[in-house]
């Protein structure tokens, strides 16, 4: 297998996992803590797919796992979030988008 085929197979596996996680999230049967954990897992999986495709990564609010609204944050807060993101994920060549 060449690199493109490997990326495709990995993305296909990731997409199937995301579909399954979405199904669980929308079922309405998960307790709040499990739903929160699943939301984090989904956002991490989306970021992993973006890394595989060499796309930009977005900084996320740790509490809600949603993209951070940088317009309402100070430059220091945004910088701190970027540093936390880079150290926690150890991104490999991917950019962080704002």
Low-confidence stretches: 91-98
Percentage beta strand: under 5%
- Rounded average pLDDT: 82
- Major β-sheet annotation: 2 strands, parallel
Determine the number of helices (DSSP H or I, runs of at least 4 residues).
Answer: 3
User: What is the H/E string?
Assistant: HHEHE
Q: What is the CA-based Rg, rounded?
A: 15 Å
Shape: flat
Number of distinct beta strands: 2
Q: Helicity, in percent?
A: 55-70%
Brief digest:
This protein folds into two domains: 1-55; 56-98, no CATH class. Helix 3 links the parallel strand 1 and strand 2 (96-97). It is mainly α and 98 residues long.
SSE layout:
Layout: H1 3-26, H2 32-52, E1 57-58, H3 75-89, E2 96-97
Structure description:
This protein has 98 residues and is mainly alpha-helical. The protein has 2 domains: 1-55; 56-98, no CATH class. Helix content is 61%, strand content 4%. It has 3 helices and 2 strands; from the N terminus they run H-H-E-H-E. The chain has helices at residues 3-26, 32-52, 75-89, and strands at 57-58, 96-97. It has a two-stranded parallel ribbon. Helix 1 (3-26) runs antiparallel to helix 2 (32-52). The chain is flat, with a radius of gyration of 15 Å. Residues 91-98 have low confidence and may be disordered.
């Amino acid at each position: 297998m060449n690199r493109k085929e490997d990326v495709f197979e990995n993305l296909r596996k990731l997409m199937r996992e995301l579909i399954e996680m979405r199904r669980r999230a929308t079922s309405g049967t998960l307790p709040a803590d499990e739903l929160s954990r699943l939301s984090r897992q989904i956002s991490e999986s989306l970021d992993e797919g973006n890394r595989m495709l060499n796309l930009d990564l977005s900084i996320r609010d740790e509490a809600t796992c949603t993209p951070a609204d940088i317009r309402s944050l100070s430059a220091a807060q945004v910088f701190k979030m970027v540093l936390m993101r880079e150290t926690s994920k150890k991104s490999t060549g991917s950019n962080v988008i704002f």
